[in-house]
Design brief:
Blueprint lengths: L1 H19 L2 H16 L4 E5 L4 H14 L4 E5 L9 H8 L5 E4 L2 H10 L3 H9 L2 H4 L21 H11 L7 E5 L3 H5 L2 H4 L16 H9 L3 E5 L13 E2 L10 H10 L2 E4 L4 H5 L7 E4 L13 E3 L3 E4 L2 E2 L2 H11 L5 H10 L2 E4 L3 H13 L2 H4 L2 H18 L14
Parallel strand pairs: 1-2, 2-3, 4-5, 4-7, 5-6, 7-8, 8-9
Antiparallel strand pairs: 10-11, 10-12
Length: about 400
Amino acid sequence: MISQLLKNLFYSIKIFMVFLFSFEAYRELFRLFKFIITQKKKIQYYKLRERYGQFVSGFYMALSTFKGDAVIVFLKKDIIYRGFDLELKNIFFNTNCFFIQSEFLYQITRFYFKNQKSENFITNYHPTETLKNKNMFNFNIEKFLKFKDHNTVQSYIEKYFLKRNYVKKIIVISLKEKKYYSSYKKIFKNYVQPDYEFDSFERLHKVANYLCKNNYLVIRTGRHLKKSNFKHKLFFDYASSKKFNNFTNDLYIASIADYLLGNMTGFDHVCYLWFKKKIFFFQIRSYKFLLHFPNIYFSKMNIKKNKKKLEIYQQLEEESFLWKSQDQNDLYKEYAKNKIYVSKYSPSIIIKNINFFLNNNSKKFNNKKFYKNYLKYFSKEYKKIGRHLPVYFANYMKN
């Protein structure tokens, strides 16, 4: 207990000293004071998370949850990469929203304006869990954006893809590629990805080719990635583009995409800003997303033990028995020790899944009667697999 108190004291002194010797912090203090004085609405506050997808959707959720209130948002400097904080502030505009970057000012604000609504939001909010409450996604994010009039990628996509070719739909492929994660060790040091969660676009050329041949515009997303060898008139390698690759254009591409195929990179959370307009298809850890049907489809993980493929309830049973921490790398090590192997789905199997995914009638799935019957079915299934889910500490059926 004493060591924890000393740590807290050291942390408090550290953030105070940073504030004390920062000229920008004093300017920020003046602007914050002016913002508070001129506001007649209730003050709320929120600290944006550092992981890419979580902070984007977190900011949106804060605006939606605190609708009608004044929101003070703590945005850590260089939250993802250098200059990112400036991009965010330039794109979002709201007279009732104020960004601060001094943690000392944020903690003072939190102390002075402390209220249960903000505290609950900070403690309980997680983008994936919040998806259960679809009413959260009834807030028009576009009224807070000011990027479309000057968006160079918009004219590029229209000129070279949409006007020249017949395009059925726009599909984003977003994969966790090891090169990107390893290039940001400071950001991801507290969230190390297990090897089986990484994939490569090069491995999925067959998938991209299948989609392009069927008149889908395929956009590969990511950040600072090597140019792909795959070429097609309906393929846009946005992930390797130095000219277009930035947060503004991430938002634009997320807004126009019809579907997202991926393995939970964070770009999916950017797409959540337009949740009602999109359908998502994930390849990994899919059972966590069951309740987000019909907007999210899934494929269970490809796991084998003693050369035998495990069914989903067996996967859950093994996982809940072996995984004793929140670090997914620990689970991966335990799998290896117990001779349980996680492998990627072959491109052919992914194409088979995509066919089912793209050819289903989403209007039918969004029908109230169908959805009600689905929930009844899922309730029965949950009873079968629910006892295998202690790791996640979440009572899905309560929601």
